[in-house]
Specification:
Protein name: BLUF domain-containing protein
CATH architecture: 2-Layer Sandwich
Shape: globular
Order of helices and strands: EHEEHEEHH
Distance between the termini: 24 Å
Organism: Palleronia abyssalis
Oligomer: single chain
Number of strands: 5
Radius of gyration: 14 Å
Helix content: 25-40%
GO molecular function: blue light photoreceptor activity; FAD binding
Structural class: alpha+beta
Domain BLUF: 1-91
């Protein structure tokens, strides 16, 4: 069993600085057995993280204190029988790779990412194929 969480937050940094977060996350997550994906939709971050419970809980605390974003909302936290993003120490995508608005327009879902339920957000993230070149 694995533990995971999904959150949304608002970025406090320009998109150009996201690569630092991504590269550091890949390195740290690989060492901790954590996998997941980070997506930036305009000024919003949405991230799914999964792995061993103790490592995931420690990372959740660290992310909650990170001043590179604000208004963090946990959309889902729970156990997983298997990983959703196995093989990705951390995938990163933006609305230039995949747009929430385009995805929901085809599915008649809430138009705002902040109003969406966790199942829809997970489905959206699962449809973004971003290879992990680790």
């Amino acid at each position: 069993m694995f533990t995971g969480f999904l959150y949304t937050s608002e970025a406090n940094q320009p998109r150009e600085l996201d690569s630092r977060v991504y590269l550091q996350s890949r390195r740290d997550n690989r060492a901790r057995g954590i996998t997941g994906t980070l997506h930036r939709q305009g000024c919003l971050f949405v991230q799914h993280v999964e792995g061993p419970a103790d490592q995931v809980d420690a990372l959740l605390s660290k992310i909650a204190r990170d001043d590179r974003h604000r208004d963090m909302t946990i959309r889902w936290y729970g156990t997983l029988p298997q990983r959703h993003f196995d093989g990705w120490s951390m995938s990163y995508s933006t609305d230039q790779d995949a747009s929430w608005e385009a995805w929901v327009s085809q599915r008649k879902r809430p138009s705002s990412l902040l109003e969406a339920d966790a199942a829809d957000i997970h489905a959206f993230l699962a449809n973004i194929v971003m290879p992990d070149y680790s």
